[in-house]
Design brief:
Length: 157
């Protein structure tokens, strides 16, 4: 084997080693790139679901209960301060032996079919000297997706 052939063979071997090294590194980088793409896809899914959830939350009903004296009478005021409607609204006084609400009025108005945004319901409260100073009110309603919500409120005279 002549010197020229030996140099040609050595240069060929060096170029094969460089090519194999490049191929191994490229495969490693490609595998890492695929992992990053999968992570990016998961992140995009989470962001999309979070955006959809935030949009849904902005259209939710935000109910509030207050016990207010209007003129000479006390009234329970149930207000929807949110951007969405509350459907099939139900009211319950919790741990209240002496309910100040008229059962006929409650059974007539509830379940309330739809409490729209920025609207309210007034219920006459028969408050007397021995009435408790605080009441716990439980509201149960459904949103536009038919998901049931339950929230308890503490109201005071």
């Amino acid at each position: 084997m002549t010197l020229t052939e030996f140099l040609t063979l050595a240069i060929s071997l060096v170029s094969v080693i460089i090519a194999v090294t490049s191929l191994i590194r490229t495969r490693g980088i490609a595998a890492e790139q695929l992992k990053l793409e999968a992570i990016t896809a998961k992140l995009a899914e989470r962001q999309l679901s979070q955006i959809e959830e935030e949009a849904h939350d902005r259209t939710q009903a935000k109910l509030h209960v207050d016990l207010t004296k209007l003129g000479k009478n006390w009234k329970f005021l149930i207000a929807n301060r949110g951007e969405g409607s509350a459907f099939n609204l139900r009211l319950e006084l919790i741990d209240c032996a002496d309910s100040p609400l008229s059962q006929s009025e409650v059974s007539e108005k509830f379940p309330y079919p739809e409490l729209k945004t920025q609207s309210r319901i007034k219920l006459i409260a028969g408050i007397h000297m021995q009435s408790p100073r605080t009441y716990q009110v439980r509201l149960t309603w459904e949103d536009s997706r038919d998901v049931e919500h339950v929230e308890d409120f503490h109201v005071a005279l």
